[in-house]
Amino acid sequence: MSYLSSNQLKQYEDEGFVSPINIFSDAKTKKIRNEIELIESRIPDELEKSGRYNAHLISPLLDEVTHNSKILDAVESLIGKNILVCGTTLFIKNPNEKGFVSYHQDAKYIGLEPHNWVTAWVAITDSNEKNGCMRMWSGSHKDNLKEHDQKFNEGNLLTRGQTVKNVPKEKTTPLILNAGQMSLHHPTVVHGSDLNKSNDRRIGFVIQSYIGTNVKQILGKNSVQLARGVDEFDFHEKIGRPKSLLNENDLKIKKRENHNLQDIFYKGSSKKGSY
Question: Is residue 117 part of a domain?
Fold first, then answer.
């Protein structure tokens, strides 16, 4: 039995995303936000720039989100019952900062093939057009990977400022989420997001990505967690779950994993961005 309805499965197939999906209560998302902000206050640089990756390795609460059964049920509907966690990203846009995400495809620089994987975008605060929610180019996942310019432009929250040209903005769909809701999107759907013009932070915790066990990393090395089922392929090194908040050994593991991720993201590039 599929956790996603037949309409939701059809939306994903036709449009390359499904949204919104209810996951957490307001009280739970407040708790998650508090944990993120506690980490920021205790170790001010820990989640900055490229430190935003793999925060689930140092926070039991973010790890719990990553392994949440409702999320995994929805993911299973799309990629099957054997599921690995291949990393997470915090997308935080503070008010009055110039942070945006150019239109791009996740699969372009991430090295995960075949494309039996999905990204879960969990709203920790409301995400809407005023504060720079994601916008999807519906149906664009049906084409091949597109040419991306590497802009390395200021304010762009992507590693290389990777940008698909000529995206018809008027044809993109805003994914409006209340805190506690999530969207799921396909590796090759073109998407981006605008500036936060509100007076509060916009926080998204993104499991990027849940991969099927048949997926290889062709550009470098990712360690993974087994989230559900069995890993009959064993393509990746396995990694443990955090023991306590900001555990010293877990901080070292996060640092190592993020170093490996930089090698993947900047493979073949003569220049490096700050993310």
Answer: yes
On whether the CB atoms of residues 267 and 108 are closer than 8 A, the answer is no
Does residue 162 lie in a domain region?
Answer: yes
With b meaning 16 or more CB within 10 Å and e meaning fewer, what string describes 131-169? bbbbbbbbebbeeeebebebebeeebbbbbbbbbeebee
Query: How much is the pTM?
Result: 0.95
Q: How far apart are CA 201 and CA 126, in angstroms?
A: 9
The amino acid that residue 107 corresponds to is: A
How many domains are contained in the chain?
1
CATH number, domain containing residue 28? 2.60.120.620
**Cβ atoms 167, 192 nearer than 8 A:** yes
What are the pLDDT digits (tens) for 92-146? 999 988 888 889 999 988 999 999 999 999 999 999 999 999 999 999 999 888 8
**How crowded is residue 96: how many other Cβ atoms within 10 Å of its Cβ?**
11
Report yes or no on 275 lying in a domain. Answer: no
How many Å separate Cα 150 from the centre of its chain? Answer: 20
Q: How many CB atoms lie within 10 A of CB 20?
A: 15
Residue 188: CA count within 13 A, CB half-sphere: 16
* Beta carbons of 20 and 182 less than 8 angstroms apart: yes
Which residue would you say has higher pLDDT here, 266 or 6? 6
With CA atoms as reference, report the closest residue to 181 among 62, 28, 49.
28
**In this model, does residue 159 exceed pLDDT 70?**
no
* ∠ CA 33-16-21, rounded to 5°: 40
In a domain, residue 195? The reply is yes
Domain that holds residue 72: 6-265
Q: Which residues contact 106 (CB under 8 A, 6 or more apart)?
A: 119, 185, 187, 188, 208, 209
Residue pair 119/134 in contact (Cβ under 8 Å)? The answer is no
**Residue reference for tokens 């290389």:** 160
